[in-house]
């Protein structure tokens, strides 16, 4: 029986560049570093890891993506645009949320998600 998701992992080719994006641009705080440049973890409500240890190339086309809940998706998306981050889907409004999709510097898709508050 599955208890929970153990972690979400993204492959990266340049750990320093990837860490700069996730730590400086998105504001995640590193919780552990298992070997220089090999595996770095963050805990934004569950384990999110960056790794250079898998034989998979970073891509927004090959499958999964991570969605981070944010306080203000419009503001963060605009700030990332100003920093030159690639936005592949601008802020989109749905009945329950707003979201956008950006690419990390490795080419992985990152969903920025904001639940709507009940009125």
| Molecular shape | globular
| Contiguous runs where pLDDT drops below 50 for at least 5 residues | none
Number of alpha- plus pi-helical segments: 2
| The level-1 CATH class | Alpha Beta
Counting DSSP E segments of at least 2 residues, the number of strands comes to 8
Q: Can you name the CATH architecture?
A: Roll
The CATH topology assignment is 2,3-Dihydroxybiphenyl 1,2-Dioxygenase, domain 1
Listing every helix as H and every strand as E from the N terminus to the C terminus, the arrangement reads: EHEEEEHEEE
| Radius of gyration over C-alpha positions, nearest whole angstrom | 15 Å
Instruction: Give, in spatial order, the strands making up the sheet with the most strands.
Output: 1-4-3-2
| Mean pLDDT across residues | 91
Can you offer a commentary on this structure?
18% of the residues lie in helices and 34% in strands. The chain is of the alpha/beta class and 119 residues long. The chain has one domain: 2,3-Dihydroxybiphenyl 1,2-Dioxygenase, domain 1, CATH 3.10.180. A hairpin with a 3-residue loop joins strand 6 and strand 7 (97-103). It is globular. It starts with 7 loop residues before the first strand and ends with a strand. The mean pLDDT is 91.
Spell out the key features of this protein.
single chain, 119 residues, alpha/beta, 2,3-Dihydroxybiphenyl 1,2-Dioxygenase, domain 1, four-stranded mixed β-sheet, globular
